[in-house]
Predict the structure of Maltokinase.
Amino acid sequence: MSTAPRHAVAALTDDLAEWLPRQRWYAAKGSRPERVGVREAAQLSAGEPALLHAIVEVDLGGGAGTEAYQLLIGVRPDLPEHLAHAGIGRIGGDCAYEATQDPELMSLLLRLMASGEQTAGIRWTPEPGVQIATGLRARPIGVEQSNTSVIFGDQYILKLFRRPSPGPNRDVELHRALLRAGSAQIAQPVAVVESDELVLGFAQTFLDNAAEGWAAATASVRDLLAEADLFAREVGGDFAAEAGRLGEAVARVHRDLAESMGVEHMPADAVVAAVAELHARLDAALAKVPELAEHEPLVRAAFDALRGLDGAVVQQVHGDLHLGQTLRTTSGWVLIDFEGEPMASPAERVRTRSPLRDVAGMLRSFDYAALHLLAGTEPDHQLLTRALEWADRNRAAFCSGYAEVGGDPREHGALLRALELDKAVYEVVYEASHRPDWLGIPLAALRRYG
Ligand SMILES: Nc1ncnc2c1ncn2[C@@H]1O[C@H](COP(=O)(O)OP(=O)(O)O)[C@@H](O)[C@H]1O
Ligand SMILES: O=P(O)(O)O[C@H]1O[C@H](CO)[C@@H](O[C@H]2O[C@H](CO)[C@@H](O)[C@H](O)[C@H]2O)[C@H](O)[C@H]1O
């Protein structure tokens, strides 16, 4: 490829305006970019295939502002069959494609991380004391995610942040803090990829043979619904013991984050401000999803019940905890992805929060796991009763497990209820823009809180 990197990516911007909205990690769901501009472009490899790195700026038009995305673009004269699905468009006579799908180009990233060098303004730095093996086969991860990850052999997983933001990266910082506290509930940090302003990628040990919490929990629900005249405790795939151990693991993570990064007691005026913020989040959600309106009084009452709350403890927490952020390894539960809520601004994400926020997230997730199989099916009272029984049983087991290490979350009923409702409202907005077929899950939950 003979064109300068910036010109090469600029040649692709019309194609990108079509391609970006089809990507799972594109945040402004439903809006086609009005314009795509190139903020930074660099060539990481000039061979054939060539590898371009770019930060592009998506202008959503109508005063909606811009969003920056990180792209890795492969360039070849022709796309072989195994990359046909990855095509983006054309740069001159060549084909441009999503490079994370190309093992040949991704193995270059592993070599760069192992070398610790700086290439085209990007630093590839192993974490202190880590020796990175090279020569491992790269493969893209086959799951839907907010970013894009590549696995190397069975040893490392590199997450490329699709919307890198300036300042310290929360995922990296919290992992380092947990490592300092000796946490056994995280995958070890391996390397960080950064430019002058942005953290672009984060590599960790790949936990081979780990089962995703969501997959394990929903397998248990499937077993139960197939035996709908048995109680959850009588079915072979009962999940309650695992839910309990997961509760313990989450409490350990909270204890270690508190030890490494400290805790604060919220003064009364901060509680008032936090309640106002909950209401403001609800206002924004109501404006986006009209179906929420019937639940407004219930949710506002739960928020108002917090006004007199005294001495609430806040600290760094996971921030977006659900079963999909947990992995069950042979030695216990591990939490992943400490970036915080994908829809929150970087400033909101770094704030200290009540640990009960994570507990509320997990409790909501047990509800999701129990009910997602019934979403969009004919109402069946028996199946619904069994699914709700599964949710109750596992929610209770999770809280009991948490209480083995930290305090019992159920002793803070008003706060937990308000945070669960806030999370359900967040989920309504998330589902409305990402998975409208699942919108009924958090809406039905709001109905049951009534
Ligand atoms: N250390 C790891 N070991 C094994 N699998 C992992 C690891 N980290 C992430 N994964 C897998 O990658 C998926 C996406 O990771 P995650 O950090 O949640 O990315 P995103 O921020 O894009 O949602 C997870 O659901 C899990 O299946
Ligand atoms: O994993 P992400 O950081 O991208 O989190 C977002 O997407 C999640 C869905 O993948 C979403 O979680 C919601 O759906 C889950 C089931 O798919 C469920 O277990 C969670 O309880 C529910 O909140 C998450 O809210 C969103 O931030």
Residues 211-449 form a domain with the Aminoglycoside 3'-phosphotransferase; Chain: A, domain 2 fold (CATH 3.90.1200.10). The CA atoms of residues 122 and 195 lie 5 Å apart. The mean pLDDT is 93.
